[in-house]
Design a protein that fits this description.
By secondary structure, this protein is α+β, with helices and mostly antiparallel strands. The protein has two domains: 6-55 and 273-405, no CATH class; 70-260, no CATH class. It has twelve helices and ten strands. Strands 2-3-8-5-7-6 form a six-stranded mixed beta barrel. Strand 2 (88-103) and strand 3 form a beta hairpin. Helix 2 packs antiparallel against helix 11 (371-396). The protein is elongated and about 105 Å long.
């Protein structure tokens, strides 16, 4: 009996692969394509998740938004309720109206938002020029970049004046002149518009001034933030309970979203929903890639069966000189694993290059989890083992006398 060492088995396997280069290359194609697709899709999925988180970070860090769904719902009482909620770092009220904005004789209908002083810090409203207003400011405004550069015949600059006209609920009209203190930053054309009214399309004025002009004292919504992302969901739930109590919703209806006349959105929930969407797409595309892997494994099995048939006399000769069942089994399994592993290595490299190229093309952050390399190699080894067992077992069970008679 011959004791077949691993080194000898590897030499015999590589010799067999080398003697049929074209067949071996075609056999690995399915594995290369399948592994490359799996690795690239998982890498892109991680990049997309990171991209969404970064984009949300541009909108604001650790934010919580409370949106009223009926007029005169929120007042100073709810503002103080949120401000006193444990974990809230800062909070700002806001209110939205469409106003007629006039600049140098040209009038346009533009979205005007009344905001509290902390609003720009909470939702990251950055400026191209000028400054934000403070609570002491009255008839001052910050103009969105698109409004300042595109909506009028001439660009609006800091220290310019604009007239804003509002129509009150009683039908009367009020006009007030505002001095422009700042212009928001030019928008990134590749950014995802998480806000239906992005800063560049708005005009911001103090909310106290808006309420004064409209003869109102309510707020439409609040934006708040926490010190850390880990606190967002817990603080959001606390705000929900406190607001519900403040406007008279009973404790038993707290979980009934149909009863509440407001909606709460927070960063943690948005990230979770985006991650779920990204995960679903990744699973779908990866499932298609696994079909290529199955086809590749069937290809390896078929080629190994052909190899066993072609090498029948060789197998009979090996058995006649002392190779036993286990030696023959190991030899053909090792050959299948090597073919598959070569495909796995090339597929992993192709997936790495492909995902990197797509990330550059799509403007995504570059991320390649190191575990994907081990995943690609592990998949190929498993496929080699699974697809090689049956042909190897068939070869190992051959009768040496019958094998030697094979033509």
């Amino acid at each position: 009996m011959i004791d077949l060492k691993l080194k000898q088995a590897l030499m015999l396997a590589f010799g067999s692969i080398n003697s049929a280069k074209l067949r071996s290359t075609l056999t690995t194609l399915g594995i290369i394509i399948g592994v490359a697709a799996v690795v690239a899709n998982l890498s892109l999925g991680a990049s997309v998740n990171l991209y969404f988180e970064e984009e949300l970070g541009d909108f604001g860090d650790n934010f919580i938004i409370v949106i009223g769904e009926s007029p005169n719902l929120f007042s100073d009482q709810e503002l103080e309720t949120i401000r006193r909620t444990s974990g809230v770092e800062s909070v700002a009220p806001m209110k939205q109206r469409t106003g007629q904005v006039t600049f140098r004789g040209v009038s346009r209908q533009i979205n005007v938002e009344g905001i509290g002083q902390d609003y720009p810090d909470i939702v990251s409203v950055e400026l191209e020029s000028g400054n934000h207003f403070s609570d002491t400011g009255q008839y001052v405004a910050v103009v969105g970049y698109n409004v300042a550069t595109e909506r009028f015949d001439r660009p609006i600059n800091t220290r310019n004046s604009i007239d804003i006209t509002f129509r009150r609920n009683d039908g009367t009209v009020v006009t007030q002149t505002f001095r422009v203190l700042g212009v928001t930053k030019e928008p990134d054309p590749d950014a995802i518009p998480f806000n239906t009214q992005p800063p560049e399309d708005n005009i911001y004025i103090p909310i106290s001034t808006m309420n004064e002009l409209l003869n109102e004292d309510d707020f439409g919504a609040f934006v708040a933030n926490t010190a850390t992302r880990e606190e967002v969901r817990a603080v959001s739930e606390s705000i929900d309970r406190n607001i519900a109590r403040s406007i008279g919703i009973s404790a038993r209806d707290l979980d009934n979203e149909q009863v509440k006349p407001y909606t709460i959105i927070n960063q943690a929930d948005i990230i979770e929903q985006l991650n779920q969407l990204s995960f679903a797409l990744t699973v779908l595309i990866t499932a298609v890639a696994f079909i290529a892997l199955i086809v590749g494994s069937i290809g390896i099995m078929n080629i190994m069966l052909v190899t066993v048939t072609e090498r029948t006399r060789e197998i009979g000769l090996m058995k006649s000189i002392g190779f036993d069942y286990q030696d023959i089994l190991n030899l053909f399994i090792i050959e299948a694993v090597i073919v598959s592993l070569i495909g796995g290595i090339l597929g992993t490299l192709l997936g790495l290059v492909g995902s990197f190229a797509l990330e550059i093309y799509l403007g995504l952050p570059h991320i390649f989890p190191i575990q994907l390399i081990f995943l690609g190699l592990s998949i190929s080894i498993i496929i080699g083992l699974v697809s090689g067992v049956y042909p190897a077992s068939k070869a190992a069970k051959m009768d040496p006398v019958e094998a030697l008679r094979h033509e």
